[in-house]
Amino acid sequence: MASNPDGLERLLQGNKAFANRFTAAEPELLDKLSQGQSPETLWLGCADSRIPETTVCDCKPGDIFVHRNIANVITPTDLNSSSVLAYSVGVLKVKRVIVCGHTKCGGATAALDDGDLGETLNAWLGPVRELRRKHQAELEKLPSTDARANRLAELNVVLSLEAVRQHPVVKEAMETRGLTIHGIIYDVPTGQLRLLGGE
């Protein structure tokens, strides 16, 4: 089977270029990272391919501990995000937690109505759709689907921040060692981050 230069081979060649460039520029960093990790930031973001957190924040490997999912949904009952919070905050002792939503979010756009997306996505976007229902009057005043989806993405960050605040390990870290939490929006057309608020 012929390899596709835009597929797996492209990724493997890209990795070789990265490893060569990185080891030449900072030969000690990868060795240091092989000994363990001590990131200062936990990033809870969307799985969208346009928002690679290390790239958009101009950071290096080892700087950011990451959890990403569709529409950056964080709920108290999700074992996946809860385990990431427990490990990064409780074991790695990150100093800050960031929940990052973004403009042009397909999940937020899909949550603007109750169209059938299949069992898995219907269930996953349930909290975002419920949030839309709660803020329906506000959202309907906005002039376009894009504007409504962007506002829903902001509201979803705020809701996710509340779930983060309620996590027992996070609550303890905020009280005992000054852990901070922050909500941000990444604007896809400009590449800029905008702070929504934090503690």
UniProtKB/TrEMBL annotation:
One of the Pfam families matching this protein, by short name: Pro_CA
Cofactor(s), names only, from the UniProt record: Zn(2+)
Cofactor annotation remark: Binds 1 zinc ion per subunit.
GO CC terms: cytoplasm
Enzymatic reactions: hydrogencarbonate + H(+) = CO2 + H2O
Positions of Zn(2+) binding: 46, 48, 102, 105
Keyword Metal-binding: yes
Enzyme Commission (EC) number: 4.2.1.1
Keywords for the protein's UniProt record, in alphabetical order: Lyase, Metal-binding, Zinc
GO biological process: cellular response to carbon dioxide; cellular response to oxidative stress
Residue ranges of coiled coil: none
InterPro entries tied to this protein: Carbonic_anhydrase, Carbonic_anhydrase_sf
A GO molecular-function descriptor: zinc ion binding
Family to which the UniProt record says this protein belongs: Belongs to the beta-class carbonic anhydrase family.
Function: Reversible hydration of carbon dioxide.
Name of this chain's protein: Carbonic anhydrase
Upper classification of the organism: Eukaryota, Fungi, Dikarya, Ascomycota, Pezizomycotina
